[in-house]
Write a structure and sequence with these properties.
By secondary structure, this protein is of the alpha+beta class. The protein is 64% helix and 17% strand. The protein has 10 helices and 8 strands. A hairpin with a 5-residue loop joins β6 (301-305) and β7. The protein is elongated and about 155 Å long.
Length: 456
Amino acid sequence: MKRNIFTALAIIFLIQNSPQCFAQGGLWSLEQCIYHAIENNLQVKQAVNNVDANKLNLEQAKFNYLPSLSGSAGYNLSFGRSLDPTTYQFIDSKAVNNFSSSLSLGTQLFAGMSKRYSLQRSELNLMASVQDVQKAANDISVAVAAAYLQILYNKEQVANSQNQLLVIGEQVARTKKLVEAESVPMGALLDLEAQFAAESYNLVNYKNILANSVLNLTQLLELKNNDGFDIEVPSVDALIGEAPAENVEDINDAAQELPQIKASKLRLEIAQTDIKLAQARLYPTINLGASYGSSFSDARQRPVMTTTGQIYYEKYPFFDQMGDNANSAIQISMQIPIFNALTARRNVSLAQVSARNTEITMQTAKNQLYKEIQQAYTDATSASSRYESAQASVLSSSQSFDYAQKRFDAGAINAVDYITAKNALLTAQSMMLQAKYEYIFRVKLLDFYKGVPITL
């Protein structure tokens, strides 16, 4: 799990700090394609934004342990008969200026440990969102790898089609000379020309399929312009081997470290924490507070005694009055939930139901992953068998075509038999290509489930 978190954090750093480092054009390796796709994929960016939001939520959950401090100040201008807030006596005046200010400090001493559970929830939520980043990156990586291999497959199909067109073109030219020499009938030339037209159509079709597969990859890379875009063509024949040695259970055990499984487990912990949060609201809440304040009124005067014992009144200066009128208080309060229409207990029950649903969601994710592994394993095993059979078929069809070509050159068979042998070879080659790239993709996918990055 630590490796997954480190990888996800590296992805977040990449997206937030890395410049656009690949030029649009030139040959792209699979690793470059995956790197660029992760950096520019909108789903990955959205997942990174969720991580940022959950970081802020976690910071707030920590700050909630701090006491709250607030201040207030007010000014009041009254006319006529009014109450002097400093003496609580009524006065008659044209205008009275009053000023008051206060500071208050408060903290929650106990609330059923709701702050602790809120902090735990925020920590788990952040960890789950980090796994979501890795999951989004994994999804785009697999999609890019599939698109990349599809291009490699289509390139080989185009190359085979070009070779077939070249071969049939040579036969058309040769047969045309033979027809002109009246050595073979005109029908043989017409059959070959028809086949040449069909091969030309196939080549155009394969090129269009290749262009669409390139477009698909560039769209996954979020490239606005794919002019000049092309990929490297690595040697993949060395990747062809026997059926996977591991069984499905071993691969599935390793796949439990995948981010979607980690995220589902973390969200189950979140749901269980939500139950504790709901239960915390059944307990009393104890709060501690303190306040300090003062006030001023320009209508207030203070008595002054002279040395002769006479008393007169003078203006009460602002700062003197604020100091003399200062007051402070400390308070502690407890709120006990007695009856609130059973809302609190119902919320506990709802949280428990939600936790059960989350557990089902987690199990669904595990089951889905197991099915995907089963399917990939079956497909890889099947592709391995089909590739071996296709190799034998290509060898046999190649020998048959070589023999048919020699006989056709000698005039022992007609053009139809020659074309039939050639098409059989083309079909066998196409089947072998399909099996080869299907095997490579499925084996790479199985390795990916085990935590091995996709490379060629």
